[in-house]
Design a protein that fits this description.
It is a single chain. With about 350 residues, the chain is of the alpha/beta class. It is built from twelve helices and 13 strands. α2 packs antiparallel against α9, α4 packs across α5 and α6 packs parallel to α7. The N and C termini lie far apart (about 55 Å). The protein is globular, with a radius of gyration of 21 Å.
Length: about 350
């Protein structure tokens, strides 16, 4: 039987998003928090299930959640947009401001979904490269932005998978370049709480800048799929026109609100993982590896005396899963490890030492 309807030609040629879900004892490949939320949070969410009016649609604009997030970040509620994970936030931005006949600029290596979402929504991807040190090269940004005149330009800070956080000076410079061509700068801050500063301080109604965030990492809520952005009120109003109605279910909204009652718990987890990141970084530097400094909850490294694919498989054979980045642009031979619990990290470091020495 022939397939009656074919997908768009460009979609048919795409690879989907792939992150291996392997049955292992130590999973350090997807940058999840190894620390669950507090039992009090879990109990509060369980109790909220009984309060959901299941026969009614949820608040279409998630007004209470937007208001609480606005209070957390010191902005107005009309500057907040919430969605099913930061990926839906980025998808809605592309549907609203990119799409066919427009381009999206990004600088590899960076988060794979930036280009994937742009292509799925029909936009052309204008791909620049980072410098040899994997940092943003402003001359390259200037070249890409001036030639492609992108509707959206992405910066990921801290950048996934390199862990590099952009400086305020870099973000301001890119924002100026993007503004000159009438574009929008999107700073993806999925790992922001681990970093020394946030581009949120640059958000204003007269600046073409948005900052996206997620509950998945520091809030220990990857299973909830909840994200948001902070940006100009005029931009949020346009996103509300495009996103599907009632897209954010009532229980998810409740969980997002309850999490905001546990900010201290979130900050405690960040502190624990930041300290553990320093320990893992130091241990990796004692092995035959090139290691990039990280401002996130993961570390990029390159074994210098072994094939990355072979090292990845040897770790899996020892029931430890990390992310193999060796096929990503500019990352030949690189692996990325999520910071886990101390016990998980010890399992990883012992296994890696055994493989490399």
């Amino acid at each position: 039987m022939s397939v009656p309807v074919a997908p768009r030609d460009d979609v048919a040629m795409m690879d989907g998003y792939h992150s291996p879900q392997v049955d292992v004892e130590v999973r350090l490949n997807t940058n999840e928090s190894p620390l669950p939320p507090s039992p009090e949070f879990v109990a509060a969410v369980a109790a909220a299930v009984g309060d959901v009016r299941w026969h009614r649609y949820p608040d279409r604009l998630a007004r209470e959640l937007r208001a609480r997030l606005a209070e957390l970040h010191g902005v107005r509620a009309d500057q907040v947009f919430v969605a099913n994970g930061s990926n839906e936030v980025l998808q809605t931005l592309s549907l609203t401001y990119a799409g066919p006949g427009r381009s999206v600029a990004l600088f590899e290596p960076t988060y794979a979904m930036h280009s994937q979402i742009a292509r799925v929504t029909g936009a052309t991807v204008a791909e620049g490269r980072r410098g040899a040190d994997l940092a943003i090269d402003l001359d390259e940004v200037r070249r890409v932005v001036s030639s492609a005149r992108p509707a959206i330009t992405y910066l990921c800070s801290p950048n996934n998978p390199t862990g590099i956080a952009e400086t305020p000076e870099t973000v301001r410079a890119v924002l100026e370049l993007v503004g000159e061509v009438g574009g929008l700068l999107v700073v993806d801050e999925a790992y922001s709480q681990f970093a020394p500063w946030s581009a949120l301080e640059l958000v204003a109604d007269d600046a073409p800048l948005v900052v996206s965030r997620t509950y998945s990492k520091t809030w220990s809520m990857a299973a909830a799929r909840l994200g948001y952005l902070i940006g100009p009120a005029w931009l949020v109003a346009e996103l509300d026109k495009v996103v599907l109605p009632y897209h954010l279910d009532a229980l998810k909204q409740a969980a997002g609100l309850i999490a905001l009652d546990y900010v201290d718990d979130m900050e405690r987890r960040v502190s624990i993982l930041t300290e553990e990141r320093g320990r893992v970084d130091a241990a990796l530097r004692e092995l035959p590896c090139e290691v990039w400094p990280s401002a996130a909850n993961f570390i990029l490294f390159r074994p210098t005396a072994a094939d990355a694919d072979a090292v990845w498989q040897a770790l899996v054979d020892r029931s430890v899963l990390v992310r193999n980045c060796s096929g990503w642009p500019g990352l030949s031979g690189c692996l990325r490890v999520t910071i886990g619990t101390r016990d998980e990290d010890d399992r990883f470091l012992d296994a890696l030492s055994e493989v490399l020495t």
